[in-house]
Design goal:
single chain; 6 strands; about 20% strand; six-stranded mixed β-sheet; alpha/beta; binds inosine 5'-triphosphate
Length: about 200
Amino acid sequence: MTKIVLATHNPGKVREIADLLRPLGLDVVSAGELGLPEPEETAKDFLGNACIKAEAAAQASNLPALADDSGFCVDGLNGDPGIYSARWAGPDKDFSYAMSRVHEELELKGLSESRGHFVCALALAIPSAETRMFEGRVSGKTVWPPRGGHGFGYDPMFLADGQTQTFGEMAPQDKHAMSHRARAFQLLLEDGVLTGLVR
Ligand code: ITT
């Protein structure tokens, strides 16, 4: 079976991407399990950071590596936290705190809610081949207080358009059916490069 590295140290992403990859019959191992270092995310956009993470993992492991750079972009905060979504949670990765910060910064602007979207950039780096990149989005709005214990990160404060449940309230398979990550993944599948790896 072809081995592929998930170039992420975020357990929520590992869970969701492994669910999406499972049907392809790839042998998935995470960067955390391989003890790979976390590269600094110095790019100015999601695609650039996904590339940095995928290429660092592919180089260190000599295996194909799939990275995800994602975030929550809130219109009322001019797109913040955006590429800084993980950093807003501080060193303890406290997303209750990060969600409160979004809410408080909106309130400071006199807003009780705002439109926003999640972005997911995927980069697939294959040793000695060109890195492929894909981006998916899902639009909706902020809700306060947060609702639900599923998912991760900002899920409990995000209501996708046309839904009554936040991403935090949805069953994982319902989030997978419509999320930014699932949309980016669909583009990756359509490209065929991933299925080409399966022997
Ligand atoms: P890696 O870099 O190791 O992959 P990270 O958590 O630091 O892990 P990012 O830099 O891409 O990853 O930060 C993305 C943050 O955006 C993530 O920590 C979540 O808080 C948030 N986020 C991304 N996708 C999300 C989703 O599906 N639901 C809720 N929050 C999400």
